[in-house]
Amino acid sequence: MNRIRVAIQKSGRLSEKSLDLLQRCGLRFARSKDKLYWYGKDFPIDLLLVRDDDIPRLLLDGVCDLGIVGENIAEEAMLENTADNNLEQLRKLPFGGCRLSLAVPENSGFQSVADLDGCRIATSYPALTRSILTSKGISAETVKFSGSVEIAPGLGTADAISDLVSTGTTLRANHLVEFEVLFQSTAALYGQLEQLPVEKQNMIDRLLSRLDGVLLAAESKYVMLHAPRDAVDTITRLLPGAENPSLMNLEGDPGRVALHAVCRETVFWEHLEALKGAGASAILVLPVEKMLG
Ligand code: ATP
Ligand code: ZN
Hints:
The chain has helices at residues 15-24, 55-60, 71-80, 126-135, 152-155, 169-173, 198-219, 232-238, 269-277, and strands at 4-9, 29-31, 37-40, 45-50, 66-70, 87-92, 98-105, 120-123, 141-144, 160-165, 176-185, 187-192, 221-228, 246-249, 256-263, 281-287. The chain has 293 residues and is of the alpha+beta class.
């Protein structure tokens, strides 16, 4: 069976974006009735929809070849299973950003992280939390919670928590204050280090190359503008991540040219203002849908 199996989150913060990313790589799936296994239509790449926590195990056991999961989950799994930490991060992905932070009750009196030495910390990420605290010279006892970590201090089961934060609203609602960021996380594509049959490896390489194209295109813009002929060098240098622009003559205006370039970095308003300042006019910034090579 030389089909590739990709595990993604069934329902949650990463599900829609993971699926969207794979679809933008040209993959299409026939959804099965039970909705857990989607068969790849044009490519031998199938989807398995699961809880995000199960993804590292599915990779480590060789049930799936690829998986999209938060770095927080993957790191925790690798620290837990040091005997077989065979997960390989293939690409970091531009979604699912969050941070694992220590939070303490308002008015707790804690001044610095060092004050947490010997304290009890409630968390869903005990291995990751302990490992980071140990590297800071702090030894704390972790109390494992699978959800609703933020209620632990109020219940008296912990002095502090280590939990995922993106906006901090949940912390404030529970009278906790963010104390220190322990780990920055995004979603990532993981594989396992086992040697795969050549056909499978080729398929994965092809998917990775498309994925790189999709990720690059998402950031890139196609810029078109008119420029004084003698300002072309200056203007090219002002374009973020652009090389070798195309120049075209403007009919009836020998002093000016049309310049087209692909910018491989984010184009901000400041860039456009600087271009205008250098004499550019008729500036257009267009999205790039796909990119290869
Ligand atoms: P499942 O049912 O699959 O176990 P879950 O409740 O564990 O789902 P979600 O809340 O959907 O998971 O979060 C999935 C991932 O999204 C997290 O592991 C983390 O990497 C990322 N994430 C981004 N922002 C946040 C946030 N504010 N809180 C929690 N996770 C976040
Ligand atoms: Zn989960």
